[in-house]
Amino acid sequence: MSTRDIVLVALFAAIIVVLGMLPPITFGFIPVPITAQSLGVMLAGCILGAKRGAAACLLVVLLVAIGLPVLSGGRGGLAVFAGPTAGYLVGWIAGAFVTGLIAERLVRDSQTEFMQFASFFLAAVVGGIGVVYLLGIAWLSFMSGKAFVETAIASLVFIPGDLIKAVVAMLAARAVQAGYPLLPIRT
Amino acid sequence: MLTGLDIEGTTLLHRTSARLKLIVLFAVAAGLFAVSNVWLLVAFAIIAAGLYASTGIGLREAFRRVRFVLFTVLLVALANYLFHSLSDALAVLFRLGTLVLLAAAVTATTTVSAFMDEIAVLLRPLERLGLLRAADVSLAVGLVLRFAPEILARYGDIREAHRARGLRARPLGVLVPLVILTLKDADTIAMAIDARGFRRQ
């Protein structure tokens, strides 16, 4: 990685940290307030691409592990990894990577606006929701003893909020791609 | 703003080396899954709570730090109680509870720099292979700590600029300028790092 890549990764990790400090966003049509931090994971892949996006998430996970309160609500430290939902946090790394992989291959500068939106949305849903939930639920099942099926099903209540985040990530990623493109596009 | 979760002190846990604490923590984590006797797990949980309290952390702060994780543990235990049996629920509750309290005790007694030293040791094999440099990792950690407050201040500025123009605060209207303005700084910061020869390539 070049110095510029390291700086981009660190700045994006800092953006994810800041997203955790903001008050939760509330939408009129959904009763549960959603925290913006996991939005940062989708954005990392969509804006920086697979490698740098995953590195930014890895950096955030590292900051949590070394005892810095960087997660939403000022959470941090090794206790987070001892809990049953740690898989979602570690899943961010793979999630951002897959988001980036898909975005790098689907998004083109010559595409119509609609196709670019569709590409970013698909990347955010598959990587930022699919992969994160896959790892999160796998870990949850391992930690939750015999009731793993029930807890796995219960965790699906967060899907609607995450779909809204994927829409926000899609809109923001396209705007950033138009204003300051950084995504390494592969043809 | 971003200060470590370690608290000052000279207790036994503070004096133990970070590496030993981490090795013991991982060994206990693996071992706990082999134990299914509820009374034994309760005893472990009491010992873990005692260790956490012995770090000199106040009761209120101690609870504030672990309440969210303990809440998720409680939910998982509740699911076990509802769909299986009370003994399964108690085993999960005290097994994960022990782990959470021990992990919190390690975090409370280990400084961020002590953790970074252990990270550097763990990265040594990767460094030998030429894949990653430990110095780059600590540079990145330093950059996050340096720029997170600045990005938060920038978020406030953008919100204020919108308010001054009578615009309603919408998440997207703040997010996009925040990301673009922040990432645009990367070139200048990278140049400043290279000009000072921090990475010595």
UniProtKB/TrEMBL annotation, chain A:
Gene Ontology terms for molecular function: biotin transmembrane transporter activity
Localisation: Cell membrane
Keyword list, A-Z: Cell membrane, Membrane, Transmembrane, Transmembrane helix, Transport
Membrane spanning stretches: 6-32, 53-72, 78-102, 114-140, 152-173
Topology term for the membrane: Multi-pass membrane protein
Entry's Gene Ontology cellular component terms: plasma membrane
Keyword Cell membrane attached: yes
UniProt KW Transport keyword: yes
Similarity comment text for this entry: Belongs to the BioY family.
Protein name (Swiss-Prot/TrEMBL): Biotin transporter
Taxonomic placement: Bacteria, Pseudomonadati, Pseudomonadota, Alphaproteobacteria, Hyphomicrobiales
Automatic annotation (TrEMBL), chain B:
InterPro entries in alphabetical order: ABC/ECF_trnsptr_transmembrane (IPR003339), ECF_transporter_component (IPR051611)
Transmembrane segments: 20-53, 65-83, 89-115
Keyword Transmembrane helix: yes
Keywords: Cell membrane, Membrane, Transmembrane, Transmembrane helix
Bilayer topology: Multi-pass membrane protein
Compartment annotation: Membrane
Pfam families: CbiQ (PF02361)
GO terms for cellular component: plasma membrane
Protein family: Belongs to the CbiQ family.
PANTHER family listed in its UniProt record: SLL0384 PROTEIN (PTHR34857)
Name assigned to this protein: Biotin transport system permease protein
Species the sequence originates in: Rhizobium subbaraonis
